[in-house]
Amino acid sequence: MYQEGRLYFSSTGQPYIKYYLDERPGVAAATIWSEIGILSPTAVERLDYPTQKPAALLERIIKASSNPGDLVFDCFMGSGTTQAVAMKLGRRFIGADINLGAVQTATKRLISLGAELHQPQRKLALADDIEPPTARYTGFEVYNINNYDIFRNPVEAKDLLLQALEVNRLQAGSLFDGEKDGRMVKLMPVNRIATRQDLNELITGFDYKAFERRQAEQPTQPVERLTLVCMGHEPGLAAHLQREVAYKLDVEVVDILRDKQDIQFKRDSEAKIVVQGDQLVIERFYPLNLLGKLSLQQEHVTDWRELVESVMIDWNYDGAVLQPTVTDIPEGEALVAGRYAIPADAGTIRVKITDLLAESLEQEVKYG
Ligand SMILES: C[S@@+](CC[C@H](N)C(=O)[O-])C[C@H]1O[C@@H](n2cnc3c(N)ncnc32)[C@H](O)[C@@H]1O
Q: In terms of C-beta density within 10 A (0-12 exposed, 13-18 middle, 19 or more buried), how is residue 357 classed?
């Protein structure tokens, strides 16, 4: 070895044996990993997720940087390739994504992979022929954080925020979104942290003539009292606004993540109730507050009836008091029927569905 120049010593005297590339099994990784191609639209592993990465790429990264049992975290998980490969390779995993579609795709993928891994006869599509790990971590939980399901729709989120904070709304087109207790309220972008740039709209939109007048009238008082409502914010946000404007401003920052963690968003339940021939059919029911509490996505409820305590129906609603003739309150494990024969003398039909949180939805159904 020594004569062949294969044995050598490091500067600290540590001995090493030199091997050449063609003596080693497998394909040598190039600096640029061009041998792992992008995932073609027709690839077997392809899911319905546009930016999905090939499992072979994640397999190489995970094997190179972790050991079985380690914890792998991909905070932009998309379709969950990292988590799926981590599961196959016996690593524990955490994933996050801002996109609900990603969470759903990854969840479905991991549930079916977990089931597949529990069938030992199935050969797994790993890029290399490796021994399966001794322990696999196939269970996982899905969490909704920071009112994520609210904030994924910015327009709806603004409405819900104004409602939850009891802000009096201003007309559309105003510089501010509302007013509360003598303060003008501005909602900053709701699906990301607020930055100094986000203040530009205010800085350019302020009514400086009014500021001038107020300052002349009451020189020691602020010309405006304003509240910025945000979901996380850059430090010094209020100070930046005060610096940029040559008038005295009283700026308060209400950060939902910091100051209002227990804010309750009231969301109404939804139901789809239809008439099919002489039957009244509840096709769907989404008790949104209950689903939120259960950390469930609407799509994950297979049978809405599992979430329902009772259904009551008034076939001739008088417009004031519900006088139900149908009271469907099942015993024990039984579920409500969800389908009811409409009597011949039915007029205005009103249905009351009460969920497991005792929250009710009432809805009228046109008939005749
Ligand atoms: C390139 S894709 C990841 C693809 C993934 N490796 C796969 O195989 O499907 C990037 C992901 O980051 C998510 N993302 C973007 N901004 C984010 C944020 N601030 N927080 C969490 N996820 C975010 C996107 O929704 C997208 O799913």
A: middle
